[in-house]
Design a protein that fits this description.
Length: about 130
């Protein structure tokens, strides 16, 4: 998944950019990531993500609320890193790959906490960087 928009529900991004509800990620970085994934014949989804640094905020009500706002995933760093990069004038993008999942709360899956995907994620990130 390629986050193109981050809903800002954390504190770091506000130290770098003026307050807004959402933050767009870098279009050039996103395109490089898409091109790298396409070259490796991998499917991807562009998505809006909910960035929150407090997992205790991920209540059933808030999850439903964020899904209704268009968020497909939740993570802890996208908005902060995107804001810092914009502030510093750096090109930055993010490729989200799954570790554990709570998509089916009745059947929690740790998925080896992403350990099986680290090598390919790094390869894809390096391929994307080489395209910038």
């Amino acid at each position: 998944m390629i986050p193109t928009t981050a809903l800002r529900d954390e504190g770091i991004s506000y130290h770098y950019l003026a307050p807004t509800r959402d933050l767009k990620t870098n279009a050039s970085a996103n395109q490089a990531i898409k091109d790298a994934l396409t070259a490796h014949q991998l499917k991807f989804t562009e998505t809006k993500t909910w960035t929150t640094d407090g997992f205790f905020r991920e209540t059933p009500y808030m999850i439903k609320y964020r899904v209704n706002e268009g968020c497909q995933v939740v993570e802890m760093e996208c908005a902060g890193l995107a804001a810092c990069a914009q502030f510093r004038g750096a090109t930055w993008g993010e490729l989200l790959y799954t570790a554990d999942t709570l998509a089916d709360t009745s059947n929690y899956s740790q998925r080896n906490f992403g350990g099986d995907s680290i090598a390919i994620a790094l390869e894809l990130a390096l391929a994307a960087v080489s395209l910038l």
